Predict the structure.
Amino acid sequence: MQNELVIVIDFGGQYNQLVARRVRENNVYCEIYSYKIDIEKIKELNPKGIILTGGPNSCYEEGAPSYSKELFELGIPVLGLCYGAQLMMHTLGGKVEKAPVREYGKTATFVNNGVELFDGVEDETTVWMSHFDYISKMADGFEEIAHTADCPVAAAQDETRKLYAIQFHPEVLHTVRGKQILSNFVYKICGCAGDWRMDSFAESKIKEIREKVGDGKVLLALSGGVDSSVAAVLLAKAVGKQLTCVFVDHGLLRKNEGDEVEQIFGPSGDYDLNFVRVNAADRYYEKLAGVDEPEKKRKIIGEEFIRVFEEEAKKIGKVDFLVQGTIYPDVVESGLGGESAVIKSHHNVGGLPDYVDFKEIIEPLRDLFKDEVRKVGLELGLPEYLVFRQPFPGPGLGIRIIGEVNAEKVRLVQDADYIYREEVGKALDKYAEEHDGEAAPWKPDQYFAALTNMRSVGVMGDERTYDYAVALRAVQTIDFMTAESAQIPWEVLQTVMNRIINEVKGVNRVMYDLTSKPPGTIEFE
Ligand code: XMP
């Protein structure tokens, strides 16, 4: 599979992955490389375009990340964003200095007419600025193509050399015409045709896997999450019965989740593969009895997973390939950034490959961002509820039950969580229906119920109760590193509270967690 390629050279900008995602949304394949990438490697990759990201440094300071002048002499169009724009000017003989006025946030920008990069952009447009330094003098050959009240060179171009420098961030949604600008760059300036599509990805991946696997045996640890499910379908379509999926139900899954996974991948599902469901709940509860320390719980759950998986793998015998659901952000974050050909194995379950006798790892989703994995899942006919599933931690409900885990507590948190997700889901659908399909501004990126270890006194039907309190969590986040609690409407919360108290015997109090991250984490343990 040889797609046309645009590369992003990363100078430490917080939006590096976002830039690549935006390019890919334009149906152009894009990879991220560290600024340490060798020029020879770039020549070998032969990209149609190069984008330089922002970064926290000042390009004129000693030791700041930079790139040799040669980069701008390859004849390949280069688009510098923020730091990337400043670096381009600095390297080519312009001047970058501390700006008299720091620009931050949405900023009115005036763009020049007739500039290809700004085709379809109004003369006055809103962009997202975030910079201390500014371009005080352009390098020879450049002309200014946009400015703001405080920034004389908000964008510049050298059309002959196809070099473009923009001070703002087109990748951020606050830049109203950001998508258009990036599209202009990849299509009009780099001349891309847009051959990166998820339907053809699935098709050619299946073919590629078939060729690689031959008549070998393949093993996959299926968690029921998006990545492993999509990987399973790709493999199933490619090699059918040569694939065995082992699904460990550790008794810490969400309500009905085990059965849902079995329905899709088991014998009554659409795929002709070997599906092994291991019902290991009792084993887990036994191991977890009396343990309340979070790290200890996580360790026990992780280790037990490996043990169960290993037992099943032994029954299957020697396999040739082990499938992992690694996705592109894992590759970027591991620092490989495509610079190395060495395959580093990622897994949600620590140490898996060490215990299994296999020859090679297959990572069919290694090039994809999460939204692309979802698109492939839909292409392959996976149900929407599975494809758009929220992130769910490997240790599952084990870390959403504060303190000791047992079967009864699992039931309480499963039932409460089910009600919560159902009601929030309904409210989100209703909002979208009433607002032309628009998502509610309070739409959480992750929401779930947890069982606190607190029991308190209540009164129900004239009787005293002494039951558990459930905590509801909902967060909005971009990268899950920081998060704010989502403002779920009061009436939705009240419905959830009423239903939980009435329907979940053993719970008599419902609380809403307002804590942001930091100082809190998203999960409770
Ligand atoms: P925290 O609680 O650290 O969670 O704020 C951030 C995101 O990571 C998920 N999470 C996990 N995912 N294994 C996983 O695969 C884990 O052990 C784990 N712990 C937390 C969490 O659900 C949230 O999306």
